[in-house]
Design a protein that fits this description.
Elements lengths: L9 E7 L2 H16 L4 E7 L5 H10 L5 E2 L9 H18 L4 E5 L3 H12 L3 E5 L14 H11 L2 E4 L2 H9 L7 E3 L3 H11 L18 E5 L8 H15 L7 E5 L4 H11 L5 E4 L4 H10 L2 E4 L3 H5 L7 E3 L7 H6 L2 E3 L4 H13 L1 H8 L10 H12 L6
Parallel strand pairs: 1-2, 1-4, 2-3, 4-5, 5-6, 6-7, 8-9, 8-11, 9-10, 11-12, 12-13
Length: 384
């Protein structure tokens, strides 16, 4: 690239398919569009999650140029991967791109990165370098993100820890940029919008009880772990000795989740089971909660910005920064442990304040601008 000469815009294709990806890519797409003098942006969605994805597209007013619309009932990971690989390949065959941007660790992201690699198009990986060092936890995300990083020409690490992970895998230092996490950018954008109304089911909850917000939907939680989680939630909601809580649980539509949750929790007093909430409502529900129980990754990043302690119902996390900062605690899935840890935060004001006031280690809300600056600075790469 010759500085000072008139240059045609970079062609960038952003690909995502699930709600978590869309949330974290939304501020990146907005930042790319704002640099239309230097970048021509196209957006491709796989619709690996259809309805939940569309909510995010509407909230952030994201343009969509290509919609693969591949979601089918009961689809397997292999089926998703094949359809994304074929769909993105067709796009790359028709239109020349300098960069393909993917986010995180989904099957959509891995397949899109693979399609770009096959077409010799450079890959930028948003939220690179997260690791648990265990391919089964989370599954299949741990493998997906490792494989994407192996293909990435620019790895946008959210933290110094993520950068260190990449260096430990011998990624050249000049391919890594520490940017912060774009999920914090998205959270700030969502909070700027007027607060939405919450579901009417909230009217039946006892306002004197603390609100415990729950999300649990990961594949490794299916079966016995989720059953144990539900037993712990049932006990927390059923107590009447002053230590009871309101359990609010937006339930993922996957039958492996829905059937288990309904069997253990449906109809219980002080339990509010909701359909999946759009991101805007969920952010404001986090703000209203007392604490959060989750097996999600993104919530571990977002909740500290709202001053909400996070108890992680997994055996390990790829976000150890949250644990080290004191904003999150990994507690596993055993019912008795869940009850004990919630009791600790409800009964010990000092323990609660320590988690609620800890500084968010995941960024300042300006990660997206840093990513776009890095792409502009890299310019139009030469052939692979």
């Amino acid at each position: 690239m010759i500085r000072g000469m008139e240059e045609s815009p970079l062609n960038v294709l952003a690909v995502f398919g699930t709600r978590p990806e869309a949330i974290k890519m939304a501020p990146v797409v907005r930042a790319l569009v704002e640099r239309r003098d230097r970048i021509q942006t196209r957006v491709c969605v796989s619709a690996q999650h259809r309805e939940m994805l569309d909510d995010v597209l509407r909230l952030f007013e994201l343009p969509v140029d290509y919609d693969l619309d591949l979601m089918t009932p009961g689809q397997t990971l292999t089926e998703v991967a094949i359809r994304v690989l074929e769909g993105v390949d067709r796009i790359l065959a028709r239109e020349r791109f300098d960069w393909v941007l993917v986010q995180g660790d989904t099957t959509t992201s891995l397949a899109a990165a693979q399609a770009a690699f096959h077409r010799r198009v450079r890959v930028g990986h948003v939220e690179a370098g997260l690791r648990t060092w265990n391919l089964a936890q989370p599954f299949p995300e741990e493998w997906n993100r490792r494989a994407i990083d192996a293909l990435a020409d620019l790895a946008f690490a959210p933290t110094e820890r993520a950068r260190e992970n990449l260096l430990a895998e011998n990624m050249p230092e000049d391919r890594i940029r520490v940017t912060g996490n774009t999920g914090i950018d998205a959270l700030h954008l969502a909070l700027e919008a007027p607060a939405p109304s919450l579901p009417k089911a909230f009217e039946s909850l006892d306002p004197t009880r603390p609100l415990v917000l729950v999300t649990a939907h990961r594949r490794e939680s299916f079966g016995a772990p989720l059953q144990s989680i539900c037993r712990g939630l049932a006990e927390l909601a059923s107590r009447t000795n002053g230590r009871g809580v309101n359990v609010v649980y937006p339930v993922h539509p996957n039958p492996n989740v829905r059937e288990t949750v309904d069997r253990h929790l449906a109809g219980l007093e002080n339990v509010c089971l909701l359909p999946p909430l759009d991101y805007h409502r969920f952010v404001h529900l986090m703000r209203r909660s007392h604490l959060i129980l989750t097996d999600s990754g993104g919530i571990q990043e977002e909740a500290p910005s709202l001053g909400k302690p996070v108890l992680v119902m997994r055996d390990r996390t790829e976000r150890p920064e949250a644990v080290e900062a004191g904003t999150a605690k990994v507690i596993g899935c055993r019912a008795e442990t869940i009850v004990a840890e919630v009791d600790l935060l409800l009964g010990d004001d000092e323990a609660y304040r320590a988690m609620a006031s800890a500084q968010n280690p995941f960024g300042d809300g300006h990660a997206s601008g840093r990513i776009v600056d890095a792409l502009v600075d890299a310019g139009r790469p030469g052939p692979r």
